[in-house]
Amino acid sequence: MNMMGNVVMALRGISSNWLRSLLTMLGVLIGVAAVIVLLAVGTGSSEAVAKSINSLGTNTLTVFSGGRTTSQTGTKSSNATLSSTDVKLIGDSNNAPDVQSVSPVISTNETATYSGATYSTSVIGSTPSYLPASNYSISAGRSISSADVKSHAQVVDLGSSVTSSLFPTGSNPLGKQIQLGSSEFTVVGLLASKGSSGLSNGDAVVIAPYTAVQDQLTGQSQSFSELLVQGKSSATLTLAQSEVESILAAQNNTTVANLPFSVLNQASLLSTATSSSKTFTALLGWVAAVSLLVGAIGVMNIMLVTVTERTREIGIRKAIGAPKSVVLSQFLIEAVVISMLGGVIGILAGLVVVRFKIDGVQPVLATYSIPLAFGVALLVGVFAGLYPAYRAASLRPIDALRYE
Amino acid sequence: MTLLTDSNRQRGTDGETGTANAGKYAVIALADIVKRYQMGGHDVFATRGVSLVVPRGEFVAIMGASGSGKSTLMNIIGCLDVPTSGHYRLDGVNIRDLDDSELSRIRNRKIGFVFQGFNLLARMSAVQNVELPMAYAGLRAKDRRARAEVALKTVGLADRMGHFPSEMSGGQQQRVAIARAIATNPALILADEPTGNLDTSSTIDVMSMFADLHDQGRTIVMITHEEDVAAYATRVVRLRDGVIIGDHQRVPIHARDDHMAHVQAATARLDDRELPS
């Protein structure tokens, strides 16, 4: 008896009781679809987290003026400030050879107004290097310039959310005067959309020269709320961090350990987020594996019932000369065919479900999940079919023929 | 096609029986067969030393009431069960000390089974049922289809090849079973109450077919408890309490002049039985 004959016979067995076969298949189908969908949700959410961290900028360090609590002393130094001297020192390539650029940041929240339309937005006062470091690109007009910073020019680049809220579609905002708080600023450039990152809306922003923001909005003259430092490459970002930290420690007469600023390293943040989302994805995978196990038990259960139901058939086959191995493979193949059919339909169902957003996360199909799910479906069939098939093959023909 | 010459080759190489009984080569040689079961701590004997030799070409009816051991004997002759003690040679092959898969092979190559309940596979057509033992023997699909068609023509079912058992009468199903039994050209046709589930006309139909097979030189062993059916055999062996109590050669009914009278009488008796209901 060849393989094809066995598969044909198994298909005939499956179709002779199609409703039961379908319900059995459903267990494997749901399990396999769950593997694909949950792994895709895990991958999708970890990509979303990575994207939102990447939207902070490329290879950036953020130095916050707020002090940090150190575990050694438990003290908090809040009197230290980030000054323009710090910016100058960090920007000097002799002091910090691995730093690409440093941008002082003053941030505040203001209501932007244009001919009656208002929009509450965050206002970033900085230098031109802030834009490339934070991954902002200009879609129209120009970026704020060093000359603007020097001349305290009241000019702004508008984030795309601000643009669309203040200006009707089709109109040209360039050159128009908008009001931030009580001051007037001229729109010189529009920022391309970064897209919502899930954590914050990077498009609800207005970027202006820090000098103008200090003059018109915040009033602070010497200190910055944060410094955005861009490293030369991701490989040397840790090196750049230690250079920045030692410069700031020297400026404040303290050690790096007691630095009164907190430094956020984008690369280490990313790796922490990546490892936690890996755990999350693995957890989802295990949940899916449990549902596959339940499916496998379903297949095994039905195969045991099938063997009992077909005891007489097994007796006939053995009486007319079917060897043990043929009976074994017949039932094994039947179990494998059921679970493989369930697996294939499950994969197709998974591929369909993955196209839709689930709970705010756009699933991203993990390519390895398809061969994984298919392989597991195959294993489920073998595992679930082996014992019932062995039982069938071991039946004694005289007992099986007598069975009613 | 090797299985079809298997028995001939065995005969040639088997010196023990081959040369001694060149003319009357025994298909079945049972010597002192004992089958003992354990039942509730007691030994129960199904057969207590049965010895029987069936030469090639005989049509033997084994008769006995229930509990006489005829079913056990049939299982042993059919290689479905092995005796507790004693020797059994089937077509020259010693059946003792064979494992499960070797017994399967022997059943496949040497025996054609015809059961009381037909025992056809419901999900297969007539021709597929007839092909099944040849598939287990490893014949190629084309060869077994051709042989199955010849066998079905032999039993007069050339126009029913694609039918499923549920679409056929009992007599037709039993004829498919006979086709299945003869398609492999076995050394022995073993029938277990082949007419037990059939009406009178189908019984005569099926028994005439066995008679034809016997005329063609086939060896047939049939288990039955009906005298009418046993009348078709050339030899009747009677069992009681696990031992042989009678063994007679006789002229089979279909060779006698009063065959049709016998058939009519049997039909009339059955009609009488059915009238009151």
Keywords, please?
heterodimer; A: alpha+beta; 3 domains; six-stranded mixed beta barrel; two-stranded antiparallel sheet; B: 277 residues; alpha/beta; Rossmann fold; six-stranded mixed sheet; four-stranded antiparallel sheet; 10 strands
Q: What does this protein structure show overall?
A:
The complex is a heterodimer of chains A (404) and B (277). Chain A is elongated, with a radius of gyration of 33 Å. Chain A contains 13 helices and twelve strands. Chain A is 53% helix and 18% strand. Chain A is of the alpha+beta class. Chain A has three domains: 3-51 and 272-402, no CATH class; 66-98 and 232-260, no CATH class; 103-229, no CATH class. In chain A, helix 1 crosses helix 11 (324-353). Chain B is an alpha/beta fold and 277 residues long. Chain B has a single domain (56-79, 97-274), classed as P-loop containing nucleotide triphosphate hydrolases (Rossmann fold). Chain B contains ten helices and ten strands. Chain B has helices at residues 2-13, 15-20, 70-77, 100-110, 126-136, 141-154, 170-183, 200-215, 227-230, 259-274; strands at 26-39, 42-55, 59-63, 85-90, 93-94, 111-114, 188-192, 220-224, 235-240, 243-249. The chains are: A alpha+beta (404), B alpha/beta (277). The A-B interface holds A 1, 5, 12-13, 16, 312-313, 315-326, 396-398, 401 and B 75, 78, 80-81, 100-101, 104-105, 107-109, 113, 115, 119-123, 132-133, 135-138, 180.
Number of strand elements of chain B: 10
Major beta-sheet overview of chain A: 6 strands, mixed, barrel
- What are the segments of chain A in which pLDDT stays under 50 over at least 5 consecutive residues? 68-77
The radius of gyration of chain A is: 33 Å
Q: What does the radius of gyration of chain B come to?
A: 19 Å
CATH architecture of chain B: 3-Layer(aba) Sandwich
Note the run of SSEs of chain A as H and E: HHEEHEEHEHEHEEEHEEHEHHHHH
Tell me the distance between the termini of chain A: 27 Å
Shape of chain A: elongated
In the residues of chain A, how many domains can be counted?
3
Pair with the most extensive interface?
A: A-B, 23 and 25 residues
Distance between the termini of chain B: 52 Å
Strand content of chain A: 15-25%
CATH superfamily of chain B: P-loop containing nucleotide triphosphate hydrolases
Please tally the helical runs of chain B, counting DSSP H or I stretches of 4 or more residues.
Answer: 10
Q: What share of the residues of chain B does DSSP label as strand, in percent?
A: 15-25%
Structural class by helix and strand composition of chain A:
alpha+beta
